[in-house]
């Protein structure tokens, strides 16, 4: 595993996802200063995620055909500039367009970043993917903190300051992009020379389709909570905007820990088991979260809730790449893009429910999703790669025993 590149990709992922985390934290300020309704605010989440959902798989397809190392730096820049300019604009339509531009930048980064992470991961694919995913989770966590601090002091015009991390990281990634391409060609040549008799890998599209639907269940819960958690603390639990943003950051920081933990554990016990475990723990925690009104206890519940909410994520991304070994970019684009951000498309529906029936009712509708996810996850097939590896491992053990018997 090329740890230097993996960590750089994770760092870029961190900066990119700051802007996904920033947008939900901006909503209370937008609602207050621009007099937006819940539905109008939720449509901004829709703009970011719809643009990312549609485009990200397309970038994934191109990433499978040609190397796009420049996409990393460009994606970070667009993601940051779109959010950075959105706060200084008065027109809602222009804000909508800028948020969509940020979503396109985020879509540009993820497939190529995940593909290169897979390429340089060696045998520890889920561990490498978990590090890459954890970088994004940390960015999600930092986004609300940075945004709340900046906007509390500077107002919405302070969003221009948020461009700075994107500009710095974008320049670094663009400068390093030629090294990614050069090293990748060397690695491909090395792999081909060693494995010239390498067996043909077969894509499991049916398994990948089932995985995508399973991921949509998690995405729906994630974006429902991510969009309305800060607002829930402000308008239902009667806490300050800062308290709401801290709660959102707490959820995501714990999620980053859960992502790293699940990635390392999945390499040992299997992706499927971790996915089922994560969804199974999420169901009772959602019930407890929505039925307790003490803000301190609710904040404590966020710790295991975030852990189990994020636990299935990196195993599902790694599993998707194993289902489609010949289309890793597409698999990454769907699992990290379409399969994740499609959940953001339901945000306007939840916004409408919140406007008419309250935020608590909207979040309560999410409880059924983990149940569907467990049912679907139990039927996920074992990837061909894992079956082959088990077969090779079994033959290796048999050969060792045979050698030992012959020695005796």
Automatic annotation (TrEMBL):
<dbReference type="InterPro" id="IPR036259">
    <property type="entry name" value="MFS_trans_sf"/>
</dbReference>
<feature type="transmembrane region" description="Helical">
    <location>
        <begin position="296"/>
        <end position="316"/>
    </location>
</feature>
<dbReference type="Pfam" id="PF07690">
    <property type="entry name" value="MFS_1"/>
</dbReference>
<feature type="transmembrane region" description="Helical">
    <location>
        <begin position="242"/>
        <end position="262"/>
    </location>
</feature>
<feature type="transmembrane region" description="Helical">
    <location>
        <begin position="159"/>
        <end position="175"/>
    </location>
</feature>
<keyword id="KW-0472">Membrane</keyword>
<feature type="transmembrane region" description="Helical">
    <location>
        <begin position="67"/>
        <end position="88"/>
    </location>
</feature>
<keyword id="KW-1133">Transmembrane helix</keyword>
<feature type="transmembrane region" description="Helical">
    <location>
        <begin position="36"/>
        <end position="55"/>
    </location>
</feature>
<keyword id="KW-0813">Transport</keyword>
<feature type="domain" description="Major facilitator superfamily (MFS) profile">
    <location>
        <begin position="5"/>
        <end position="382"/>
    </location>
</feature>
<feature type="transmembrane region" description="Helical">
    <location>
        <begin position="357"/>
        <end position="377"/>
    </location>
</feature>
<feature type="transmembrane region" description="Helical">
    <location>
        <begin position="132"/>
        <end position="153"/>
    </location>
</feature>
<feature type="transmembrane region" description="Helical">
    <location>
        <begin position="94"/>
        <end position="111"/>
    </location>
</feature>
<feature type="transmembrane region" description="Helical">
    <location>
        <begin position="274"/>
        <end position="290"/>
    </location>
</feature>
<dbReference type="InterPro" id="IPR020846">
    <property type="entry name" value="MFS_dom"/>
</dbReference>
<feature type="transmembrane region" description="Helical">
    <location>
        <begin position="328"/>
        <end position="351"/>
    </location>
</feature>
<protein>
    <submittedName>
        <fullName>MFS transporter</fullName>
    </submittedName>
</protein>
<feature type="transmembrane region" description="Helical">
    <location>
        <begin position="215"/>
        <end position="236"/>
    </location>
</feature>
<keyword id="KW-0812">Transmembrane</keyword>
<dbReference type="InterPro" id="IPR011701">
    <property type="entry name" value="MFS"/>
</dbReference>
């Amino acid at each position: 595993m090329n740890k230097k590149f993996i960590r750089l990709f994770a760092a870029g992922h961190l900066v990119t996802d700051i802007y996904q985390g920033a947008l939900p934290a901006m909503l209370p300020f937008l609602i207050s200063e621009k007099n937006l309704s819940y539905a109008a605010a939720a449509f901004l989440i829709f703009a970011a995620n719809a643009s990312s959902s549609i485009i990200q798989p397309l970038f994934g397809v191109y990433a499978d055909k040609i190397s796009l190392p420049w996409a990393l730096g460009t994606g970070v820049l667009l993601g940051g500039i779109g959010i950075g300019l959105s706060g200084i604009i008065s027109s809602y339509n222009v804000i909508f367009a800028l948020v969509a531009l940020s979503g396109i930048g985020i879509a540009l980064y993820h497939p190529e970043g995940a593909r290169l992470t897979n390429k340089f991961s060696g045998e520890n694919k889920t561990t490498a993917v978990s590090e890459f995913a954890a970088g994004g989770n940390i960015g999600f966590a930092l986004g609300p903190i940075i945004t709340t601090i900046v906007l509390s002091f500077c107002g919405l015009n302070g969003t221009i300051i948020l461009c700075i991390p994107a500009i710095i990281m974008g320049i670094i990634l663009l400068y390093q992009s030629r090294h990614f391409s050069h090293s990748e060609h060397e690695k491909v040549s090395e792999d081909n020379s060693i494995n010239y008799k390498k067996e043909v890998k077969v894509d499991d599209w049916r398994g990948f389709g089932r995985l995508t639907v399973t991921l949509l269940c998690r995405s729906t819960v994630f974006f429902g909570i991510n969009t309305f958690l800060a607002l829930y603390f402000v308008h239902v639990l009667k806490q300050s905007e800062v308290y709401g943003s801290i709660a959102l950051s707490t959820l995501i920081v714990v999620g980053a820990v859960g992502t790293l933990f699940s990635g390392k554990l999945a390499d040992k016990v299997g992706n499927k088991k971790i996915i089922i475990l994560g969804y199974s723990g999420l169901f009772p925690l959602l019930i407890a979260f929505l039925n307790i009104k003490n803000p301190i206890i609710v904040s404590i519940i966020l710790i295991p809730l975030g852990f189990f909410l994020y636990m299935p994520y990196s195993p599902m991304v790694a599993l998707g790449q194993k289902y489609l070994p010949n289309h890793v970019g597409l698999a990454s684009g769907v699992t990290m893009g379409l399969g994740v951000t499609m959940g953001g498309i339901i945000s306007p529906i939840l916004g409408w429910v919140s406007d008419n029936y309250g935020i608590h009712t909207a979040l309560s509708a999410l409880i059924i999703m983990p149940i569907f996810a467990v049912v679907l996850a139990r039927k996920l097939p074992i990837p061909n790669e894992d079956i082959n590896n088990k077969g090779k491992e079994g033959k290796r053990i048999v050969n060792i025993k045979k050698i030992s018997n012959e020695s005796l």
